[in-house]
Amino acid sequence: MKKLKEGLLKYYEANQTKVDIAFFLAGFVFDVFTLSETDDILGILQQVLYLALAGFILVYEMRLMIEKRECSPRWNKYWAYAPMLFHFMLGGLLSVYSLFFLKSSSFFSSLVFVLFLAAIMVANEIKSLQKRQGIVRVALYVICVLSFFSILCPVILGFVGLFPTLLALLMTVVVVYGVYRLLLKPTEGEEFLELKRFLKKNLLVPSGTILSLFLLFYSMGWIPPVPLSVQFMGVYHNVEKVDGKYVLSYQTPWWQVWKNGDQDFRAQPGDKIYFFASVFSPASFSDSVILHWYYKDPRAGWMSTDRIPMQVSGGRAGGYRGFSVKQNYSAGEWRVSVETTDGREMGRLYLIVENEEPDPYRTFSLEYY
Would you call 114 helix, strand, or coil by DSSP? Predict the structure, then answer.
C-alpha cells in the first residue's frame, strides 16, 4: 500500500495539470448525474460542504504562502491530495451552477456568461498562468460563492430581481472580508504592509474583479434568473383548461417533432395566436414573468408589441402553466420571449404567421399538458 501511495504521488507530481483537469471534469460529471432542484435541502447542504472544504484548502494554502513555509511533516502526506480534492469540488460546484444557469435562460442571453465561466475554468489549467494560479483559484472560488448566494437568496425570498442580486453580492463580500480578516495577522511595520499588499493582490483584486463583472453582467441582462426556468413553451390555435389539464390545439404534422405547436402558424380569419408556457419555480416561490411579443418589421427590425404578465407559483413538478393570447397580428415573423420582471430572458420561441383562405374542413390535433 505504501508503494502504491508513493507511486500515485510521484505520478501526480509529474502530471499535475492533467490530473487536476481529470479531477475537475470528474467533479463536473458527478454532479451532472446527481443534479437536484435548486431548493433541495440535501443539494444545498452538499454545496455548503463543498464550499467550506474548498475554502479551508484555499485559506490554508494562502497562509503557507504568507508564512513562506511548507505543510508540517505530520500533515504533508494528506496535504498532497488537497489540490486534487479542491479541483474535484470546484468542478462539482461549477457544474451545478452552470447547469442551473443554462436551464434558467435562453441560449442567446446566457452565452456570454457561460463562456466567461468556461474561460475562467480553462485559465486555471493553462501552464503560462501557473505563477498566478492562486489568483485564478480565488476567482473560481468567489464565482462559486457568488453563484451559491445568487441561487439561495431568490429561493429564500421567493422572487427574483435586483434586491436578491444585491443581497447575494453583499453576502459574498462578507465571505471575502471574513477570509481577509482571517489571513491578516497582527504584525507591525514593513511586514504588515507587505502582508496587506499580498492580500490585496491575491485576494481583494480578483474578488473585486469578479464582483464587478457580475454586476456588469446583471445590468446587461446576461445573468440567468435562477431558480426560474422554462420547462416548455409552444404556439397553438387554441388553449383551454379542462379538468385540471390544458388542452392544446395545433395543426403541425406529428412527424415535425422539432416544432413546439404551430410555429408555422396558418392563420384564417378570426384565428387567435395562443402562446403556452410552463415555468418551474421552487415551492415557496410567488412571482411574475412577462410574455413579451415581438414583430419583425421589414424595415425597422424587431419591434416590441405586447408585454403580458403571467403569475408564477411554485410547488408543481411539471412547472406552473399559463398562456397569453394575441388577437391583432400581421403576417410575418414573430417571436415570444419569456422574461423576468427585471428584463432577463428565460427562453424565446420564433414563429411565422401566414394568412390563408378559410377552410371549413380544417382539423386540429390535441395535446394534453
Answer: helix
DSSP collapsed to 3 states, 284-346: CCEEEEEEEEEEEECCCEEEEEEEEEEEEECCCCCCEEEEEEECCCCCEEEEEEEEECCCCEE
- Nearest CA to 213 out of 174, 172, 249, 265 is that of 172
Amino acid at 252: T
CA distances from 193 to 66, 206, 208 (A): 12, 19, 20
pLDDT digits (tens), the chain, 369 positions: 555 555 555 655 555 555 555 655 555 555 555 556 777 788 889 899 999 999 998 988 888 888 877 777 777 777 777 777 887 788 778 877 877 877 777 666 666 666 776 676 666 555 554 455 678 889 889 999 999 999 999 989 988 889 999 999 999 999 999 999 988 877 666 787 888 888 999 999 999 999 999 998 888 888 888 888 888 999 999 999 998 899 999 999 888 888 889 999 999 999 999 999 999 888 778 888 999 999 999 999 999 999 999 988 776 666 788 899 999 999 999 999 999 988 888 889 999 999 999 988 899 999 998
Cα distance between residue 46 and residue 254, in whole Å? 43
Q: What is the biggest distance separating any 2 CA atoms in the chain, rounded to whole angstroms?
A: 91
Report the Cα–Cα distance between both ends of the chain, in Å, rounded: 58
- Looking at 1.10.3720.10, 2.60.40.1930, 3.40.50.720, 1.10.10.10, the CATH number of the domain 229-368 comes to 2.60.40.1930
Amino acid symbol at 271: D
* Domains in the chain: boundaries: 2-219, 229-368
The pTM assigned to this predicted structure is: 0.80
For β-strands 345-355 and 264-267, DSSP reports them as parallel
**What is the rounded CA–CA span in Å between residue 347 and residue 109?**
9
Q: Please tell me the chain's helix, strand, coil percentages from 3-state DSSP, rounded to the nearest 5.
A: 50, 25, 25
CA distance linking residue 274 with residue 28, whole number of Å: 39
How many Å apart are CA 159 and CA 130, to the nearest integer?
41
Neighbouring CB atoms inside 10 A of 262's CB total 25
